[in-house]
Write a structure and sequence with these properties.
The complex is a heterodimer of chains A (113) and B (112). Chain A has no helices and eleven strands. In chain A, the strands form two sheets. In chain A, strands 2, 4, 5, 6, 9, 10 and 11 form a seven-stranded mixed β-sheet that branches. A four-stranded antiparallel β-sheet of chain A has the order 1-3-8-7, with no helix packed on it. Chain B has 112 residues and is mainly β. In chain B, the strands form two sheets. In chain B, strands 2, 4, 5, 9, 10 and 11 form a six-stranded mixed β-sheet that branches. In chain B, strands 1-3-8-7-6 form a five-stranded antiparallel β-sheet, with no helix packed on it. In chain B, 36% of the residues are buried. The chains are: A mainly beta (113), B mainly beta (112). Chains A and B meet through β4, β5, β9 and β10 of A and β4, β5, β9 and β10 of B.
């Protein structure tokens, strides 16, 4: 099983550019989430989804959009990249209630210059 | 505002020592998880606790969920260099189990 696959692994963007971080899981998990990780901050929730067609905001949603048209895919869009969005981004998925813990992808390291 | 506070943030110990990491909150959680993360990788789930007062053991690691389901601890006995890494606690609030909130993490270094 591939688990949770994130692409790309590394990306450099110029301020103002847009891009989409891809996330796909092959475990038929209903729950999916996007986190960003910054030094000393742990993981902060950006957006999450409890099933296809359903998304909601997390702790730090500004500047990011998501959609969930299929169970497998949960892309994260940066609308107009800013240096403050330089971070490592993780996608994760889980079975439905109760929340027994997420399976994480290996991350995308994004630098905005 | 950090909903889950971990302490200590950094811990450097010698091989063979014992240690405890704490995860505290003023809020109740329906479940609480502990993850371990190595550099360049995503977090990996160690354990999930769901019942107040629950204790789970994973080899030399002991996890406890507080009676009121507001806090948790991770105790490592006879730490080894292979235990080095970032330890993260994460909680799901009642009624919103799709939203998992993380603490800021504890960086553990075990020196040979």
């Amino acid at each position: 099983n591939a688990g949770v696959t994130q692409t790309p692994k590394f990306q450099v963007l110029k301020t103002g550019q847009s891009m989409t971080l891809q996330c796909a899981q092959d475990m038929n998990h209903e729950y999916m989430s996007w986190y960003r990780q910054d030094p000393g901050m742990g993981l902060r929730l950006i957006h999450y989804s409890v099933g296809a067609g359903i998304t909601d905001q997390g702790e730090v949603p500004n500047g990011y959009n998501v959609s969930r048209s299929t169970t497998e895919d949960f892309p994260l869009r940066l609308l107009s990249a800013a240096p403050s969005q330089t971070s490592v981004y993780f996608c994760a998925s889980s079975y439905s209630k109760p929340l027994w813990g997420y399976t994480f992808g290996s991350g995308t390291r994004l630098t905005v210059v | 505002t950090q909903l889950l506070k971990q302490s200590p943030q950094f811990l450097s110990i010698q091989e063979g020592e014992n240690l405890t990491v704490y995860c505290n909150s003023s809020s109740v959680f329906s479940s609480l998880q502990w993850y371990r993360q190595e550099p360049g990788e995503g977090p990996v789930l160690l354990v999930t606790v769901v019942t107040g007062g629950e204790v789970k053991k994973l080899k030399r690691l002991t996890f406890q969920f507080g009676d009121a389901r507001k806090d948790s601890s991770l105790h490592i006995t006879a730490a080894q260099p292979g235990d080095t890494g970032l330890y993260l606690c994460a909680g799901a609030r009642p009624g919103n189990t799709g939203k998992l909130i993380f603490g800021q993490g504890t960086t553990l270094q075990v020196k040979p």
